[in-house]
Records
---
Amino acid sequence: MDNKKYAKDYTFQELMIVCAAREVRNGDVSFIGTGLPFLAVALAHATHAPDVVMCCEQGHIGADPLRWRTPRNIGDAAMCAGAKMSTDLMGVMSRLTSGEFDLGFLSGAQVDKYGNMNSTSIGDYHKPKVRFPGSGGANVIATFAKRTVLIFVHKKQTFVEHVDYLTSPGYLSGPGVREKCGMKPETGPVAAITTMGVLRFDQDTKEMYLDTLHPNVELEDVKNNTGWDLKVSPNLSATEPPTEEEIKIIREELDPYSIYLKREEFQQHAIDFLFSNGS
Amino acid sequence: MSNNSKVMTMSDAIAKYVADGDSVFLPWGEPSSSCAAAHEIIRQGKKDLTVYTIGMSGWADPLFFGKTIKRVVFGWIGSELVGLSQIFRRRIEQGTLEFEDYANVHVAMMLWGGKLGLPCIPFPIETGSDLLKKKGCLGDKKYSVMDCPFTGQQLVLLPTFQPDVAIIHVQRSDTQGNAQSWGTIVEYKSELQLGSKKIIVQAEEIVDDDIIEHDPDRTVCPAYKVCAVVEEPWGSHPEGMYGLYDKDLAFLLYYEKSTHNDDDAKKWMDEWIFGVKNREEYIEHYIRKFGYGKLARLKVKPFYSASVNYGRPLKEVY
């Protein structure tokens, strides 16, 4: 693979999509969700993993939304028309609990060194400072998917010593604890893709460590933006940049209207359209 | 052909069949929301409802204003690609909403258990996270554990629910309430709506019995469970409806931006809920404010299935 042409112009978000796509294996039965996780699976599908089975918690199995457009939510009309199977939430989640899902992507407001995540609330649970939507499918995906990949913005408020509320289990308090709490071996988080690097989990301690550093990011920056004493791989290397081809696919095929790549601009455009005179 | 028509206005349906203090099953609704019914519930000032829901998208947020909902048992409440469900989150942050957190599929199982008539139902839930440990309005009745009598393995048991009333939105129904829906709806294939004691059907279209009888696979609730049928075109807006219209993302963004504090939220509700009498007026208001083109643009293009042959038996046996 020496003849790869690496892209020079890309955003951190696009780099994260590419890193997340590399976690997808051909033939995986995978949740696709929306936003970055969707773009990651779709990129893998368009490149090295044409046989990935794209599923949504809503009930789609074998969806192919890009046949129509970038899906804006899991219940998007683009997810249903053209899918191989339309069941419902229990139909898909029972495939998950019986161990048939290979991969899921998760994000949230906080994550700790064992990959435990919070997508419920900040502050006191009963009277929180900020309340988020709640678990949704996250807890169950974190429990049962063979591999989960975490996608997080890397900053001190996010990478915390202790999460305020543990919505979705990573390795809980260390090795063997998942199993004690009723979870199957060979499940759990395998990587955290952040705005600063790619982190993986130590086989013995189950603690997250920095594996590769994104271009133009200093090790010191990562440490300063992590709320615990972050371990670093002795073989720390640079994250492989996106190729020109990958960036082209993301921009032209996966999200041509930049609904995720430039989310705020897209949202403003949508509201402006609603209040405009034309149709 | 039965003449037992249950067709009525939404105003009558909510007045007759939703009482203060009732427990209500509401769907995720993205697409296929019960938004027309939700607005009527608010208009009539119904209060102290307990809502059981796998989750609800942006359409349901106004229900959290004031005293309409007292308690909610849920997996996820937000607004996808939009942001947070602002009124809902403020109620929790202010400590004025009774709530119980689960994951989506846990609530699905509790409704499924209710549908079966079981008092509780086991489900494989890990015990390491806060999802079970931290308890809300159900207190110690949030879950229980027992040893499986067959394997000895620890089982988590969830309570089950049979809500007083379910409100569902479908593409079509006959006049008695044999309601049909297609597309990937969060709850319908597992028939989670059927655990409720009675069902209000809001349908995009009321059709002849013959249409239903030619395609019973698509029926998601039988008429005998149904107390009211309301013909409500655009009844799911601002969420979408398979085969008819798309989610109105711009409108949901506008809603979200209009609800960052209670005063603004009240203004939005005065305009869109209290300022109109019914769904028809709501749609007329939309057209007046934004132009017909904005509404027409939501209509999806056709993508037909091939029709299937159910087969009709011969009358003579031999």
---
Amino acid sequence: MSTRFVVERLMQALLTMLLLSVIVFGLSRLSGDPVNLMAPMEASQEDIERIRASLGLDKPLVVQYWYFVTNALQGDFGRSIKWDRSAAQMLLERFPATIVLSLCSMGLGLLLALPVGIWSAVRRDTWFDNAGKIVALAGQSMPTFWFGILLILFFALYIPLLPTSGFGYDEHLVLPTVTLGLFVAASIMRVTRSAMLDALEADYVRTARAKGVPEWRVIMVHALKNGAIPILTITALQAATILRGAVVTETVFAWPGIGKIAIDAVYGRDFPLVQAAVLFMGVVFLVVNFVVDMLYVVLDPRISYVKR
Amino acid sequence: MTAEIPLAARPVRRPLLRRLSGASFLLRSVPAMFLLLVLLSAVFADFVAPYDPAQQDLANLLEGPSWEHIMGTDSLGRDVFSRMLYGGRISLLVGVVSVVVAMFIGVLLGIASAMIGGRLGDAIMRLTDLSLTLPGILIALAVAATVGPSLINVILIISLLYWAQFARMARGEALSIRERDYVQAAYAIGCSPLRILRLHIFPNLVNTMIVLATLEVAAAILLESTLSFLGVGVPPPTPTWGIMIAEGRPYVELGWWSVTFPGLAIMLTVLAVNLLGDTLRDRLDPKFAQRS
């Protein structure tokens, strides 16, 4: 792995982060004067001026942006207006819940998508393949939140097996995981299938068969290894999608992760918290992307990404 | 003037009955007909809808499907079917308009970047790459929280999130078209860049863009419904499919219909648009045609 490639990617991630911070900062200034939200009703003009000065809002925008960035780099994302707590701390407290939900969903997604995708490719154009195709397409076309509500309706209300919502690393995790997991599985399955179709037609597969390698080994070793790159790509993309899906799923199931906190902050017009949540998720998103880019190079030495 | 086509080059026409009954024919025509139906019922909702979508009827709230209300009534006694017809307006309007705006911005910037090249071209592409990696729904949330939700804002947010795909695709296409012999020849005989753009690049770009746009419309409709569901989309009292699901959610045990039907509407519409996109891709843009 060339250092140049790593540095280039890192620079790009930092640039994106910078853009994101400008957008978030710009929005916070568009939203009007936050002091009016914070100050009590009976505050005098002087009080308001004092609060404004203490927050640095009397300075020029560029200076304010500089404060904003330097504070953020030191882990200070401002304070939640509603809870009067450090926004960064609130997000960190909620982060494990989102991580657990995301990992479980991704696990479930892969567990479903890989076998079905591989088998669809092997049994191309059979009823299994066609059924898989239709289910995957329907899954991709379905709104996540609607599917979640239907799951609640069937498996929590009509047949009271599972809790409708709430938090716990137990049966509370089942419905949100299924909601997000199936959503993720649909895309991964489609890509797995087409990657495997390509791989199964390749010369080395014919060679392997000709040599008398058992069919399961041809599929699981020769073909799958070579189909791994597109599968990894879509899996990585889905990791980012999960973050987005988590906002919705957490809302539907009252799962107390960072998605829920972001939505609650939007409803409560708690702008510092919204800001912090967007930046925080942005960082996670970029880190995931960066790690995936690195993984490509490790997995496929032909990719170097260095411009000719 | 029609030249004689050699026999071997003529498309083989299968018997009519076979063509009409095949699974692929169904996949192609059913989505198109369904979309037409959704479109017509949205446009003519004023005439088709049996009730006023905002008319509350507290004596008949959460009534199941019946002859009076074929999809039941919601928690305020409003007719679910009528609201769904009107909700289709928002979904289609937002989906199509935001993608058209996104396509306009994207194609403009993409072609500009390809034709101008150099520093500026690179800068445009860098911006495109950056905005592809931005976490979309979060920005949508932040924007909605700041400037407040409205129809225009939803459209603008979605188009600002989607233009980059078009820019990247348009640039890639424009670059490859520019290298073809006939375009190079046009350059050589002294055609102006604008003429080349109009006569060679643009017509060759259209198909790809139509295919991409169709698929993006499906994504935009889903995003619109998600924003609506989260309460940051087109604000009430305008009925949208997302809002209907959000409003029906607390009462879902008492009235499955107020959640199920709008959700089905979203799913079937998005599915139909996706299938249409696949068909268009196979038809218009064979380069794209992957195994389906």
